[in-house]
UniProtKB/TrEMBL annotation:
Occurrences of domain Indole-3-glycerol phosphate synthase (ranges): 4-256
Protein name: Indole-3-glycerol phosphate synthase
One Pfam family of this chain: IGPS
GO molecular function: indole-3-glycerol-phosphate synthase activity; phosphoribosylanthranilate isomerase activity
Enzyme class: lyase
Keywords: Amino-acid biosynthesis, Aromatic amino acid biosynthesis, Decarboxylase, Lyase, Tryptophan biosynthesis
Domain of life: Bacteria
A Gene Ontology biological process term: L-tryptophan biosynthetic process
Pathway: Amino-acid biosynthesis; L-tryptophan biosynthesis; L-tryptophan from chorismate: step 4/5
Organism encoding this protein: Terriglobus roseus
Catalytic reactions on record: 1-(2-carboxyphenylamino)-1-deoxy-D-ribulose 5-phosphate + H(+) = (1S,2R)-1-C-(indol-3-yl)glycerol 3-phosphate + CO2 + H2O
Enzyme Commission number: 4.1.1.48
Length: 266
């Protein structure tokens, strides 16, 4: 089994253990209390004047292990907002990334920035969970889903008024995703089967992404030069996690990362 296969098996097991009619009704009541804040719109607005960064709250990963031992989602969210993030991404997978829905809820309540639920979404129940815990967008990973599942989950997210970041890794996955009409397309330079990072394919894929969608470069971005290179390739938004989470103050690190771009734009 690949890394992705193992994660998906565990995701479905955990989902079966917490899903019930009573829990669904409770989540639906919670979801009604949250008005989505327009994740894709926030990225479009930010991209007019500066690199639109989705800053990711990430405690650990299967490939790197523990990334940030001291993990305060409220403080991290506020720090990243202060540092210039346009949006946040919050890991909610527990077994492999040490995330949680509670982290998502706390981070979202602590800032004005729209938040993405970063997880392996395989069921409509998880979309209700996302809005109930104050997410404004979800991630759909093409490599993890069939065409039928992608279509169903995209429709469910739209009904829940949540934007969708549709993640692909290669031309074949992009071809499967183009007709979904997602607000955002992300190209992940990290192979989810091996966890190796290679940005070359992402640079080639940029020109094939829908011109009217937010085009997000994911993984392997840790410097101003990386942002400049991906901007030149055709991306207008950037998901950055590990390189920020390893800094004492991620917001200060993000501000320093963005400064050369802001100076150049003046």
């Amino acid at each position: 089994m690949t890394h992705l296969d193992r994660i998906l098996v565990q995701t479905r097991i955990a989902l079966s253990q917490r899903r019930s009619p009573d829990r669904l009704r409770e989540l639906e009541r919670m979801a009604a209390d949250h008005t989505p804040r327009g994740f894709a719109a926030a990225l479009r607005t930010a991209a007019k004047t500066r690199p639109a960064v989705i800053a990711e709250l990430k405690k650990a990963s299967p490939s790197k292990g523990l990334i940030r031992p001291e993990f305060d989602p409220a403080w991290l969210a506020q720090s990243l907002e202060r540092g210039g993030a346009a949006c946040l991404s919050v890991l909610t997978d527990e077994p492999f990334f040490q995330g949680s829905l509670r982290n998502l809820e706390i981070a979202s309540q602590s800032v004005k920035l729209p938040c993405l639920r970063k997880d392996f979404i395989v069921d409509e129940f998880q979309i209700v969970e996302a809005r109930a815990h104050r997410a404004d967008a979800i991630l759909l990973i093409v490599a993890a889903l069939t065409d039928a599942e992608l279509k169903t989950l995209r429709a469910a997210a739209k009904a829940a008024e949540l934007d969708v970041l549709c993640e692909v890794h290669d031309r074949e996955e992009l071809a499967r995703a183009l007709d979904l009409g997602c607000e955002m397309f992300g190209v992940n330079s990290r192979n989810l089967r091996t966890f190796e990072v290679n940005t070359a394919e992402a640079e080639k894929l940029a020109e094939l992404l829908p011109a009217d969608a937010v085009r997000v470069a994911e993984s392997g971005i840790g410097s101003a030069a990386d942002i400049q290179r991906m901007t030149a390739a055709g991306y207008n938004a950037f998901l950055i996690g590990e390189s920020l989470m390893r800094k004492d103050d991620p917001g200060d690190a993000l501000a320093a990362l963005l400064k050369p771009q802001l100076v150049a734009a003046e």
